[in-house]
Design goal:
Blueprint (H helix, E strand, L loop, with lengths): L1 H37 L20 H7 L5 H31 L6 H13 L2 H11 L5 H8 L16 H26 L3 H9 L4 H29 L3 H6 L11 H10 L4 H32 L1
Helix pairs in contact: 1-12, 2-12, 3-7, 3-9, 4-7, 5-7, 7-9, 9-12, 11-12
Length: 300
Amino acid sequence: MRRSLLNSEKFVAYTFLLPALLFLAVFCLYPVFYNFIMGFQNMDMMNLRSGRYTFVGFDQYIALFLDPTGVFPRAVANTFTYTIFSIIFQFTLGFAFALLFAKRFPLSGFLRGLLMLAWLLPHTVTGLLGKYMFSTTGIINDALRALGLLSENVGWLVEKDSALTCAIITNIWVGIPYNMMLLTTGLLNIPGDVYESASIDGANGWQRFSRITLPMLKPTMLTVVVLGFINTFKVFDLIYVLTGGGPVQSSEVLASVAYRYSFTSGNFSKGAASANILFIILLLVSIYYLRFVKTDSEVM
C-alpha cells in the first residue's frame, strides 16, 4: 500500500515536470545538439536550401584559428580580456559597496536601491547610454575637458585602442550592483554572534574580516565570480549596440563573431563552430564550479 502510494506520488511529480522537460528538450537541448552537428559540416547560404552539405570534421575549427585576417583569435583574446578585467573591478567595487551597505545607516536602503537601477536596465539600453556618454559630444569628453585632462574631444568608440576599454567600463558599471547584491546577502547571513565572540576574545577589525568574514563568505564569493564570468563571457548585446565589434574588429568577442559568421557572412557552420567553442569554455567553468561546490559541501 505504501509502495503504491509512493509510486503514485512519483507519477504525479513526473507528470508536472514533463512540460518543463519537453520545453528544455525542444528549445535548449535540441538547438545545442544541432549546433554541434553544424560545426562539423560545411553549411552555408549556397547549400542550405538544397541540403547538400557534408561532414568535414574539424575543418571549420581549424579554419577559424588559421583565418588570415585573425578575426577569431582576436575575438578570443578580446573575450578573455573583457571578462577578466570586468570581473576584477566588478567584484572589487561590488564587495566594497557590500561591506558598506551591510552596515545600517540613514538612507542605506534608498542608496542601495538606487545603485540597483544600473543592473535592472536591459543591456541594449545600457549600450545606448554608453554610446552617448563616450561619443565625441558626450559627458565623458565634457568632464575630462572640464578637468583639464583633454584639450579636444576624443572619439573613444571609433578608436581601436579604446573601444574595448569603453565596453569594459560600461559593463563594470552594470555589474557592480549585481555583485553588491549577492555579496551583501552573504554578509548578512553571517551570524552576528561570531563577531561578538571574536570581539570579546580581543580580535580587531582586520582579524575579524580576514578570519571570519572572508572564510565564511568564500562560497558566496566563488558563486559571484563564476556567475559573473558566465554572464560576462557570453556578452553580445552590449558589444553589438555599443561598438558593433569595431572599429576594425578591435572589440569583437566570441558571441559577436559567431553572429557575424552566421548572419552576415552566411557561413552557418563556421558560426556554429564559434558558438560551440564559447559553449565548451563555459561548460568547463561550470563543471569546475560544481565540483568545487560538491567538494566544499563534503568537507563541511
